[in-house]
Design a protein that fits this description.
By secondary structure, the protein is mostly helical. It contains 7 helices and no strands. Helix 2 crosses helix 3.
Length: about 130
């Protein structure tokens, strides 16, 4: 594997960090690799390389990871329906969100929420018995 020039590594690192910042801020909107590339003044291919070499991931995997992390946080708070969570993290179709969440977390959004609630109730009752 050829060694890359330091300037290339610096440039790709900068592209990757700029793209990550955009995804972290705008994950709920419709984002595409082309949109991000335009916003960081890069080509689609250069941004793909930055994701692969610096982030060890793809744009789509990164976006999904951010969305699923935010969804888990929202579901843990319990104030929103699964449909509302889906919309807040950038999914138009709740079924598409549920499928992605299940693939990512290993359980459906409602089961994730129920499991967290049961875990918290168990912890609280455990404290009462210990006192």
């Amino acid at each position: 594997m050829p060694t890359q020039r330091p300037n290339t590594v610096r440039h790709r690192t900068s592209l990757f960090h700029d793209a990550v910042a955009i995804v972290e801020q705008d994950y709920a909107s419709e984002l595409s690799l082309d949109d991000i590339a335009r916003r960081v003044a890069s080509s689609r291919r250069q941004l793909q390389r930055a994701y692969a070499e610096i982030g060890r991931t793809t744009f789509r995997e990164h976006l999904t990871q951010v969305r699923m992390d935010r969804a888990a946080e929202l579901l843990a708070r319990r104030g929103l329906t699964v449909r509302e969570v889906a919309h807040r993290v950038g999914y138009r179709q709740p079924a598409q969100f549920a499928k992605a969440f299940r693939r990512h977390q290993g359980l459906a959004p409602s089961a994730f929420r129920s499991g967290r609630a049961a875990g918290e109730a168990g912890r609280h009752s455990g404290l009462a018995h210990a006192a």
